Amino acid sequence: MKDRLHQLCRFEQLNLLSPVYRHRRFQIVFIRNVLMYFKRSVAEETLAKILQQLSDGAYLFLGESEDPLGLKLGLHPIARSVYQVAKR
Protein backbone atom coordinates (compact mmCIF):
# COMPACT_ATOMS: atom_id res chain seq x y z
CA MET A 1 0.00 0.00 0.00
CA LYS A 2 2.84 2.39 0.77
CA ASP A 3 4.15 2.51 -2.82
CA ARG A 4 0.63 2.78 -4.24
CA LEU A 5 -0.23 5.67 -1.91
CA HIS A 6 3.02 7.44 -2.76
CA GLN A 7 2.21 7.20 -6.47
CA LEU A 8 -1.12 8.93 -5.89
CA CYS A 9 0.50 11.87 -4.12
CA ARG A 10 2.30 14.90 -5.44
CA PHE A 11 4.80 16.42 -3.05
CA GLU A 12 5.84 20.02 -3.56
CA GLN A 13 7.86 22.63 -1.76
CA LEU A 14 6.85 26.23 -1.76
CA ASN A 15 8.31 29.43 -0.35
CA LEU A 16 5.63 30.66 2.03
CA LEU A 17 6.91 34.24 1.79
CA SER A 18 6.48 34.41 -2.00
CA PRO A 19 4.04 37.14 -3.00
CA VAL A 20 2.03 34.68 -5.14
CA TYR A 21 1.78 30.89 -5.08
CA ARG A 22 1.72 29.46 -8.59
CA HIS A 23 0.48 25.94 -7.92
CA ARG A 24 -2.56 23.95 -8.74
CA ARG A 25 -5.24 23.34 -6.16
CA PHE A 26 -4.28 21.12 -3.26
CA GLN A 27 -6.45 18.55 -1.50
CA ILE A 28 -4.33 18.51 1.64
CA VAL A 29 -1.65 20.78 3.11
CA PHE A 30 0.56 20.10 6.11
CA ILE A 31 1.97 23.30 7.56
CA ARG A 32 2.77 22.18 11.06
CA ASN A 33 4.64 24.41 13.51
CA VAL A 34 5.52 27.07 10.94
CA LEU A 35 3.10 29.98 11.31
CA MET A 36 3.96 30.43 14.98
CA TYR A 37 7.39 31.75 13.96
CA PHE A 38 5.94 34.52 11.76
CA LYS A 39 4.71 37.91 12.89
CA ARG A 40 0.94 37.78 13.17
CA SER A 41 0.39 39.93 10.06
CA VAL A 42 2.70 37.70 7.99
CA ALA A 43 1.08 34.54 9.37
CA GLU A 44 -2.39 35.85 8.49
CA GLU A 45 -1.31 36.76 4.96
CA THR A 46 0.43 33.41 4.49
CA LEU A 47 -2.57 31.43 5.72
CA ALA A 48 -4.90 33.39 3.44
CA LYS A 49 -2.69 32.59 0.42
CA ILE A 50 -2.56 28.91 1.36
CA LEU A 51 -6.34 28.76 1.67
CA GLN A 52 -6.69 30.21 -1.84
CA GLN A 53 -4.78 27.16 -3.13
CA LEU A 54 -7.00 24.61 -1.35
CA SER A 55 -9.87 22.91 -3.15
CA ASP A 56 -13.33 22.85 -1.63
CA GLY A 57 -13.40 20.18 1.04
CA ALA A 58 -9.59 20.08 1.28
CA TYR A 59 -7.80 19.53 4.58
CA LEU A 60 -5.35 21.79 6.38
CA PHE A 61 -3.11 20.41 9.12
CA LEU A 62 -1.56 22.94 11.49
CA GLY A 63 0.65 22.41 14.51
CA GLU A 64 -1.07 21.67 17.80
CA SER A 65 0.01 25.04 19.21
CA GLU A 66 -1.32 26.87 16.15
CA ASP A 67 -4.83 27.81 15.19
CA PRO A 68 -6.25 29.59 12.17
CA LEU A 69 -5.33 32.81 13.97
CA GLY A 70 -8.91 33.61 14.86
CA LEU A 71 -9.64 34.49 11.26
CA LYS A 72 -12.97 33.77 9.64
CA LEU A 73 -11.58 31.85 6.71
CA GLY A 74 -14.25 29.25 6.02
CA LEU A 75 -12.49 26.48 7.95
CA HIS A 76 -14.33 23.83 9.91
CA PRO A 77 -12.45 22.07 12.72
CA ILE A 78 -12.36 18.30 12.17
CA ALA A 79 -9.99 17.32 14.97
CA ARG A 80 -7.32 19.02 17.02
CA SER A 81 -5.20 21.04 14.54
CA VAL A 82 -7.09 19.61 11.54
CA TYR A 83 -9.43 21.79 9.50
CA GLN A 84 -11.55 21.33 6.41
CA VAL A 85 -12.22 24.03 3.85
CA ALA A 86 -15.89 24.91 3.48
CA LYS A 87 -17.65 24.66 0.13
CA ARG A 88 -17.35 28.01 -1.63
DSSP strand count: 4
Would you identify the regions where 5 or more consecutive residues have pLDDT less than 50? none
| SS-based class | alpha+beta
Helix content: 10-25%
- Which percent range describes the beta-strand content? 25-35%
CATH superfamily: Vaccinia Virus protein VP39
| Name of the CATH first level | Alpha Beta
SSE succession: HEHEEE
Examine the secondary-structure arrangement and name the CATH architecture.
3-Layer(aba) Sandwich
Q: Output the strand order for the largest sheet.
A: 1-2-4-3
Question: What is the CATH topology classification name?
Answer: Rossmann fold
Rg from Cα: 13 Å
Global shape: globular
Mean pLDDT: 85
**Mind describing the biggest β-sheet?**
4 strands, mixed
- Total helical segments: 2
Distance between the termini: 33 Å
Number of domains: 1
Task: Give a verbal description of the structure.
This protein is of the alpha+beta class and 88 residues long. The protein has one domain (2-85): Vaccinia Virus protein VP39 (Rossmann fold, 3-Layer(aba) Sandwich), CATH 3.40.50. The protein has helices spanning 2-8, 40-52; strands at residues 26-31, 54-62, 75-79, 82-85.
